[in-house]
Amino acid sequence: NCILGTGSIEDICEAVEVAYNGGTYSSFKDVDKTPLGGERIITTPDYFAYVQIAEGCDNRCTYCVIPDIRGKFRSRSMSDIVEEVENLASIGIKEICLVAQDTTRYGEDLYGTYALDSLIAELSTIEGIEWIRVLYCYPDRITDGLIEEFKNNNKLLKYIDMPIQHINDDILKNMNRRDTTESIKDVITKLRAEVPDIVIRSTVIVGFPGETEKQFNELRKFVKETKFERLGVFEYSREEGTPAYDMPNQVSKNTKKKRCEAIMSDQNRIHNDFNAKFINKTLTVICEGYDQVSECFFGRSYADAPDIDGKVYFTAPKRIKTGEFVSVKITEVLDYDLLGKVCD
């Protein structure tokens, strides 16, 4: 009975009321004029929250429909974000994840420069916030200032989510990505040189239209050599209304599946080798609960983003509260997870 566009979020209550009374309702307001920020309901656990710092996207990757759905890129004001995070801290939130379609572009439209580093520096002064995590960073917009924050800001976790999607120059061009093989390799080298313990999460797409076996093998070799600490691999999916939908030489489902499985198999070994480096080391872990089956507490370290990475399972001589930070000595690797015990 009701149809709302993404620009009509403020009409939801009215739409529900009309539908409840048996009527019909439709609203398709300009998505680029939808107010940013505002009051929110916390749907995550009471120690953690996502904080959206911008809306929309101007990148126009040829496989993606987000710009048509979410509108143009628009940053929230720094003061608005700071106020929201202060409110979150006042109710006990300890960890925030900064998100946007492109977090590294934050501030360009408002302040004429990339201002993610300045925003992070400001948020890190808020009492009660102990962990700041950044997701969805574009490689070409990772500035020296942002790298300095990763290097020197103790509240900013040494973890960066940086989707590259591919490494072959021709595929990147056809995807309308601004990166090149050289620029991607350069930023990874710089991040690891300046921030030795940094965890880099990335994503790649296999089976993009026209991807040859040679181009796929170039990507596979790059993944093996780069050894991303965290990696998601996705089969290309055709989205109606995108340029890539009508591109020639679409790759078969079977080929896409095989290519995805091949890289995931490689990455599984890389991931296990990375996790094994934590054995006999102590990690700070935020407790997320207690698992009755394994009779262990569980949580996450700096190396694990909520919902997408692994867990740290641990035993403790006393009850650990949800949201409490504890020091855990790692003793074993359990596939994508770690096992340890709270230090005395």
Can you put this structure into words, describing what you see?
Helices cover about 30% and strands about 25% of the residues. It has helices spanning about 10-20, 65-70, 80-90, 110, 115-125, 145-150, 170-175, 180-195, 215-225, 255-275; strands at about 1-5, 25, 50, 55, 75, 95-100, 130-135, 155-160, 200-205, 230-235, 280-290, 295-300, 310-315, 325-335, 335-340. The protein has a six-stranded parallel beta sheet. The model has no long low-confidence stretch (mean pLDDT about 95).
Low-confidence stretches: none
Overall spatial form: globular
- N-C termini distance: 60 Å
Number of strands: 15
Which quaternary structure do these chains form? single chain
Global Rg:
22 Å
In terms of DSSP E residues, the strand content is: 15-25%
- Order of helices and strands, N to C? EHEEEHEHEHHEHEHHEHEHEEEEE
Main sheet overview: 6 strands, parallel
* Helical percentage: 25-40%
Strand pairing plus helix content: what structural class?
alpha/beta
Widest beta sheet: strand line-up: 3-6-7-8-9-10
The mean pLDDT is: 95
Total helical elements: 10
